[in-house]
Amino acid sequence: MNICFIAGASTIHTVRWVNAMANKGHEVSLITQHKEELNSFETNVDVYELPIKNNSGYYLNYPVAKYYINKIKPDIINTHYASGYGTLSRLINFTPTLLSVWGSDVYDFPNQSDIKKDILKKNLAAATEIASTSHVMKKQTERFVNGKEIHITPFGIDLEKFSPDKYKKNLNMMNIGIVKKLAPKYGIEYLIRSFAILVNEKNILDKTNKKIKLTIVGKGEQRSYLEELAKELEIAELTDFVGVIPYNEVPDYLNTFDIFCAPSTLDSESFGVAIIEASACELPVVVSDVGGLPEVVDNGETGYVVPSKDPEALADKLYELIFDQDKRKLMGKKGREKVEQLYDWGKNVDKMEEIYQEMIKKYK
After folding, report:
1. Which of 21, 82, 150, 179 could be cross-linked to 86 through a Cys-Cys bond (beta carbons 3.0 to 4.6 Å apart)?
2. So what's the pLDDT on residue 267?
3. Alpha carbon of 185 to those of 9, 89, 223, 228, 311: distances in Å?
4. DSSP type of residue 293
5. Which residues belong to any copy of the Glycosyl transferase family domain (predicted)?
6. Phi/psi at 113 (nearest 5 deg)?
């Protein structure tokens, strides 16, 4: 197949889908107004950068994008993100086009104004078919479009890269961790507050013969605020802000954790990639009840689901897991089994490939 992606070149989600299809032997191109990171894509991927990089580019780049489409002559277009690139894709008006929604494009964007809600509706209606990474986001998307087939296409993981490695753990340390952007929607403030409850109210340090720490991996606009919060709550010495790491190092960090925590606050957290990465490494997970996070966690089986913005409830579950090694191990193993069944990246790519093939047959 000749597959053309219209998407942001700077996101790992785009990179993984594009490279996966190139590695399957397809002719693959990417049209983007985001600058490609150095050596992001396989050498057999053709990347076409659009000249205008700001939001107006989703409209003003149309003539150049249309020229590239006429040059590429794809069998199918897969557009990622329903608001910005969805607008560009609507103007191109190519059949067949699969529009992949991501989260904030169908949760946050339409709530910002009636104009933006109308833009989203037009973009969804213009697509030939739609793809969603989760069932909960499919339901959200159905609020804005009628009569379109919406496929469930999980954004899975490489189970060889994300696998348990017990030798990376410090047996004398209880390490609670998260790997996320330091932004308000990911609720890291509430993780810090819950950790402070463990230390200052539940006196966890006096009750365990292990050292305990909180590891926060990632960068973002909240870093200074979160560091100051840790100082204010008197847990700064127990909190490690690692900063950003290369994606290929994420499994190494996960395997140093004993518990993974993702207390996100917004429903636009539509699919928990970070959670299934942790589960694949056989970590018990504690997540909030927003968006698609409960969909990737079997509550009480692979981890716990707690109310969002509730550090006390979060601290209670962390406390339980800290003192129950058998439960941590069992939840970790069941989490790995769930990921193997539903979120094997190879199987997810095969499913997307089948959708492309079916759409080409149906609409060409």
Report:
1. 82
2. 82
3. 23, 28, 13, 18, 15
4. G
5. 165-337
6. -170, 160
Query: For residue 69, which of 45, 44, 51, 95 has the smallest C-alpha distance?
Result: 95
pLDDT of residue 189: 97
Compute CA distances 60 → 55, 77, 261, whole Å. 9, 19, 42
Q: Which residues of the chain have pLDDT under 70?
A: 38-39
**Cβ pair 292, 137 in contact under 8 A:** yes
Cα–Cα distance measured from residue 279 to residue 167, given in angstroms and rounded to the nearest whole number: 17
d(C-alpha 319, C-alpha 41), whole Å: 43
Angle among Cα 104, 110, 115 to the nearest 5 degrees reads 140
Q: Are 215 and 192 in contact (CB under 8 A)?
A: no
104-133: burial string, b at 16+ Cβ within 10 Å, e else: bbbbebbeeeeeeeebbbebbebbbbbbbb
Structure tokens of 126? 């213009």
Q: Which two tokens stand for residue 7?
A: 């998407």
Residues 6+ apart with CB under 8 A from 64: 50, 51
What pLDDT sits at residue 12? 87
What's the confidence (pLDDT) of residue 272?
Answer: 85
State the chain's mean pLDDT as an integer.
95
DSSP 226-255: HHHHHHHTT-GGGEEEEE---GGGHHHHHT
Dist CA 96 CA 191 (whole Å): 44
Residue type, 358: E
Please name the residues in contact with 302: beta carbons below 8 A apart, sequence gap of 6 or more: 279, 284, 285, 331, 334, 335, 338
Contact 102, 82 (CB under 8 A): yes
> Cβ atoms within 10 A of the Cβ of 246, count?
6
Tokens 């979120």 sit at which residue? 343
Q: What is the pTM of this model?
A: 0.85
- Residue 195: HSE in the Cβ half-sphere, 13 Å Cα cutoff: 34
Say which amino acid occupies 8. G
Task: Specify the pLDDT at position 38.
Answer: 64
Q: Encoding tokens for residue 28?
A: 């693959």
H/E element holding 350? helix 345-363
